[in-house]
Amino acid sequence: MKSNDSIIFRNGLTMGGIVLLALLSMISSVFIAESSKGDAAALNLAGSLRMQSYRIATRLQDSRDTDTHHAENVAREIDQFERRLDHLWQTGA
Predict the structure, then answer these.
(1) Which uninterrupted H or E stretch holds 65?
(2) Same domain, 83 and 47
(3) What does the pLDDT profile of the chain (93 residues) look like in tens digits?
């Protein structure tokens, strides 16, 4: 009986192939996770900017506030929006 025909040798080759595929899968998963890490941060920041723009619009439409208080709230919201937007431009994420 040849060693190439033995069941143990064929099972060993099969297990080696499975291990190789598993390693390739793990390496590609790590690569994909690392390459998409900044995308999630950018999406979160974009969502927070969108919500802040809704708050600014709400403050502008809110007529219950006094003029001074209303102007302070709008100015504060706009300032926070601009700081977050500047952070987005500076970091790229």
Answers:
(1) none
(2) yes
(3) 565 678 999 999 999 999 999 999 999 999 888 887 777 777 888 888 899 898 888 888 876 656 777 788 888 888 988 988 888 788 765
